[in-house]
Design goal:
Elements: E1 8-11, H1 17-28, E2 32-37, H2 40-53, E3 57-61, H3 67-81, E4 86-89, H4 104-132, E5 135-140, H5 153-173, E6 178-185, H6 207-217, E7 228-231
Helix pairs in contact: 1-6, 3-4, 4-5
């Protein structure tokens, strides 16, 4: 039996890379998917793929840097989907800049998208999960949640924060049969991955393979859970 079939999934950052693959593969599992993006052209491309395959979906175009847009989106999701069974916080910002070239606006942007948005979505959608005694919260972290890398202090700080948030939410909600996961991959072959300096992009993780790994991991529904999953490359530099 596929426990994901007919589940309602909400996923951010689905206009490319990991988010796009997760959205399509959740739909392939028989889920009803609500996905978001902030780039209209890329989001339209994902919609085209969903339409070709005949998948059941809703879509929202939103900038997660602004709380007002997030609250409006939450209301719209509840109106169209009823409740969310699986939340995937995948959207993220990445700056590759030295400390002296990072300003307060960049700090706010990074933490709004990488930390505040996951917090707001988790707080909103976990209420129905608690009522239904079933749920999955999936936060897409990074190897930067466990390390510090030159010229990425702000990004590393945000991913450390997301990991800490995931750990706390897991312990708070597990009594309600809600499983919280933080998947932290190394370099992934995405547009964001191309911004990483001093690495061989050809050795990076393929998004479709990573998405399959995530989905298979969250299917376990008894007493076992891997709430923190670090996914590394075979070739780590």
């Amino acid at each position: 039996m596929n426990i994901l079939e007919n589940k309602n999934v909400f996923i951010t950052g689905a206009s490319g890379g990991i988010g796009k693959e997760l959205a399509l593969q959740f739909a392939e599992q028989g889920c009803k998917v609500f996905f978001t993006g902030r780039n209209q052209d890329k989001t339209t491309e994902v919609k085209t793929e969903f339409n070709k395959k005949g998948y059941d979906y809703h879509v929202g175009l939103v900038d997660l840097n602004h709380s007002r847009g997030i609250y409006s989106l939450i209301t719209y999701v509840k109106e169209t989907m009823g409740n969310i069974d699986i939340l995937v916080n995948c959207a993220g910002l990445f700056y590759n800049r030295s400390l002296d070239k990072v300003d307060e606006e960049m700090f706010d942007d990074m933490f709004n998208v990488n930390v505040k948005a996951p917090f707001l979505f988790t707080r909103a959608f976990s209420k129905d999960m608690i009522a239904n005694k079933w749920g999955r919260i999936i936060n897409i972290g990074s190897s930067s949640a466990y390390n510090g890398f030159k010229d990425t202090s702000l990004y590393c700080a945000s991913k450390h924060a997301l990991l800490g948030f995931s750990r706390a939410v897991h312990n708070e909600l597990k009594e309600h049969n809600i499983r919280t996961f933080c998947f932290s991959p190394g370099g992934v072959q995405t547009e964001m991955g191309k911004l990483v300096k001093g690495q061989d992009y050809s050795t990076f993780i393929e998004p479709d393979e990573f998405a399959r790994y995530v989905i298979e991991t969250i299917k376990y529904d008894s007493n076992m859970i891997s709430e923190e999953v670090r996914v590394n490359r075979m070739v780590v530099q």
